[in-house]
User: What shape does this take?
Amino acid sequence: MPSVIGVRRAAFVCAFCTLIAACSSSPGAAPSDAGAPGCATYAVPTSFAPAAAVSFERDVFPLFAKSCAFSACHALANKRLYLGGSDPAAARAALVNVAASAAPTLHLVEPGDPAKSFLLHKLDGDACTLVGTCKDGDCGDTMPPQGELLPVASRDLVRRWIAQGAK
Assistant: This one.
C-alpha cells in the first residue's frame, strides 16, 4: 500500500509539471494576441505589496502544483524545460537566471525584478508586448495556454518571490 507521502508527492509532481508545461508553447506558434490592438502590459494591482516573505519551496513550488491539471510535459529530462520533477531546488535552478528560449535577452526569472522576468509575462498574459524581444516575434502562449490566467493572488505570490530575490 503506497504511503500518504508517496501519493502526495506523485500528485504534486504531476500537477507541477502541468503548470510548467503551460509555460512552453509549440515552436512556431504565434501568441494568440500578437499584434492585436488589445495587447497591453499587465498593470500590477495597487494592492500588491512585496513585504510578506515568500519561499520557493514552501510557497511557490506548491502553488505551481495545485494550480494545474495533470501532465508530464516537463517531468522528463529530454523536454525543452526540465524542472527537476519533485525536487524544488532543481526546479528553482531551471528558472532563476536562465535565459528564456523564446526571448534569450530575458531570464525566465530575474531575481529582484518581476518586470524583467519572462515567466511573469507568461503568467500575466502580456508576453505579446515583448514581440520585439522574442525570436521571430513569437513569445509563445500565455500560461496556462488555454483557459483563464491564474488568479491575481497566485501571480502576485510569484511576483513577491521574484521581487524578494527569487530565493
